Amino acid sequence: MRRSRRGYWREKRRYDSQAGETMITVSYVYDxxxxxxxxxxxxWLETYIPVVSGRLRNHGIEVRIDETENFDILxxxxxxxxxxxxxxxxxxxxFHGHATEETFMVGTWTRYWVRRLLLHFAKNSDIxxxxxxxxxxxxxxHLPDKKIAVMSYGIDLEKYEFRxxxxxxxxxxxxxxxxxxxxxxxxxxxxxxGIVEFFNVAKSLPDCRFMWVxxxxxxxxAVNLFYKIFAHAGEVSLKNxxxxxxxxxxTREVPAALxxxxxxxxxxxxxxxxxALVEAAACSLxxxxxxxxxxxxxxSDGEDCLMxxxxxxxxxxxxxxxxxxxxxxxxxxxxxxxxEKHHDINSTAQELAGLYKSLL
Length: 360
Known about the structure:
Elements: H1 5-18, E1 24-29, H2 32-38, H3 44-57, E2 61-65, E3 73-76, H4 81-86, E4 93-96, H5 108-123, E5 127-130, H6 133-142, E6 148-150, H7 164-173, E7 182-186, H8 195-204, E8 209-213, H9 221-230, E9 245-249, H10 254-259, E10 263-266, H11 275-282, E11 287-290, H12 293-296, E12 306-308, H13 311-323, H14 325-342, H15 345-359
Helix pairs in contact: 3-15, 8-13, 11-14
């Protein structure tokens, strides 16, 4: 006779206890083989997942990537083909609501299919984790009876602390002098990230150095063309850029790039969290950001950042910070405190571990 799921897990925990083994195994599914073909810019896949996996071990949780057989809980990070196949599993399932249809700057028809894809995985999971209340509102609207947990990704705060040695090396690499005031942003080439606004503000402030840290999402010509069409990135022209703009291209040296910066300018139009902004705050950089709800969940205009909605307002904020080193230092310290309060990876790991254990 087939055992119930509850009976199976009760028996398994009894066996693990007798064997002195208490680890719970969670399969983090994001279809690494497919992702490698689709992108060389894996962002949080390369920063968040390895760090949180290490922290979870301290709570009795072992994370395995794309494990298809030996696991206790399935945690779906990306709705790709491997995740679709694994939805058939009878193990407890977690869906991470990293994205909503608003994340993609696409037309109505494509948004409809994006919505169907995301909600298909969400409704077939036991619980949805969202990195912000703004993302959670989307899933509550479409799946009002579904269990949802709001939980920041969290970052390794120490990793992104300011380091003078990294500042000097990065500046030397890109020909930036000690006297230059550098305004940076981190992200892929996408209109959603506010790259057009970034360039336009740079033109209006020719005495400052602006640095865009990031590049195309892939070197695959065919896939890159798809991205340009899908995300309307083709409308972003990298020709005739103002001479005060530096393009670093895709780099894994984000902590060094942040240390090399003096102000972080994040004009993104839509985020479900905005890890790049969190990382900049951890580096104690003064922040100039878009005035959108997701940022107001943990930042306050005039307290630990400066918010705006227009290029003119952004330029005014940046000019004020350039002229006032004391204000830069004050806002940077407050931004760091906000990151510590809301986005510590240790707190995230503790919450995640509790969630996993509750599913069993």
